[in-house]
Amino acid sequence: LFALASQSMGGRFIGSWRAFRIDGKTHYGDRHGVRYFKPHGWVKRQLHVEDYQRVRDWPIVYHGSSDKNVAKILLTGMRRPGEGGVAISHGQAGSSTHRTMYFSPSIYFSAHPVYAPFQEVELGRKWFQVVLQCKVRPGSWTVRQNTLGYRHWPRDVCFDPNFPTNDEMEFLLEDQDHVVVIALMYRELGCDANASVFGNLVTQIEPEHAEHAQYRWTELLAEEHRARGLVIIRGAAGAA
Q1: What pTM was computed for the model?
Q2: pLDDT tens figures, 171-220
Q3: Opening angle at CA 40, ends 37 and 41, nearest 5
């Protein structure tokens, strides 16, 4: 599917896959007040962007979706719901137009299986996810806290080790001209995934978890974050 999308785009994928292995480096600096955190445990394929210098200093955000939807976006660009056959997928929480596009400065949040569902590669042993890396025009978004329900993620645990709360997980945009897709992010999960590239935690999804692999992953991640002390203290300034 992605090979077909790449061919249809006239070879817009450029360069080779780049792996962001888990190490001590945490970020690559700020862009207009939004920090670009290193996407540990992912690999990235760059897209050719016309007039890249125009958007070079725009902040980096992410958009999670299914493999089929991501392929469509690679072909046609980011579209608002209701345009070009784009359907509303997640209820448009916090939107006044009901045609809002949703992004996040956190790849952890954008990669939640609610947004970026698992796609099975090897029966019961390996899955993959895809997320789009984008740039957004400075000042074009509205910030909103996490709107995922408690059954998808515990309220007292941080989604992302780089953010002390879940208050600024969602960026809402209305103008598709203020978004440029710059790369495809990819990772594998499951007992046969490459731990040296994608990390050890993803390999803890075992064949016995196959029917509920997505739930098992969020459970593992939440447990790890809690064990690392990545919890939201009720009553603390800025806590949800």
Answers
A1: 0.89
A2: 999 999 999 999 999 999 999 999 999 999 999 999 999 999 999 999 99
A3: 155
Tens digits of residue pLDDT in 64-115: 999 988 988 888 888 876 565 555 565 555 556 657 999 999 999 999 999 9
| Residue 5 and residue 71 in contact, taking contact as beta carbons nearer than 8 Å | yes
d(CA 84, CA 170): 23
* Long-range contacts (CB closer than 8 Å, 24 or more residues apart) made by 172-175: 172/94, 172/95, 172/100, 172/101, 172/102, 172/141, 172/142, 172/143, 172/144, 173/100, 173/101, 173/102, 173/103, 173/136, 173/140, 173/141, 173/142, 174/80, 174/97, 174/99, 174/100, 174/101, 175/137, 175/140
DSSP class of 209: G
CA 140/CA 45 separation, integer angstroms: 26
Q: Which residue has the tokens 């050890």?
A: 200
What letter represents residue 93's amino acid? A
CB neighbour list of residue 66: distance below 8 Å, 6 or more residues apart:
116, 117, 119
Q: Give the C-alpha distances (Å, rounded to integers) separating 185 from 110, 114, 140, 147.
A: 11, 17, 23, 23
Euclidean distance between CA atoms 163 and 27, whole angstroms: 12
- Among 120, 105, 130, 119, residue whose Cα is nearest residue 43: 130
